[in-house]
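fyi for ur records
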Amino acid sequence: MRHHNTNRKFGREEGPRKALLRSLTRSLILKGGITTTEARAKEIRPLVERLITRGKNPTLANRRLLISRLGGDEKVAKKVELVAKKFAERQGGYLRIVKLARRKSDGSPMAAIRFLE
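which gave:
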């Protein structure tokens, strides 16, 4: 049975799909916002929000978990902790997805995902 198994596959095998999501997550954290397809934005939002929540409590275990989830890059993990300080009083909902015009080439629905101010 497929109960609660609603992850998008993006036409990729498991490894390339995880790499895509990790890359989008890292770009979003480093740049503060990215423009991508609507489906990709909706898929990475819960991943990034969980990382920000972990970054609020900078224990050694949480720091190691951030590093492992972000592909072994300590620079990005430190950036997560900096962003998390900004949301110290907030109980979730750190990102905003804004729908944009469809992509001209293939008509895919586009969206901008960025952190709240």
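The chain has a mean pLDDT of 95. thats all i got for now
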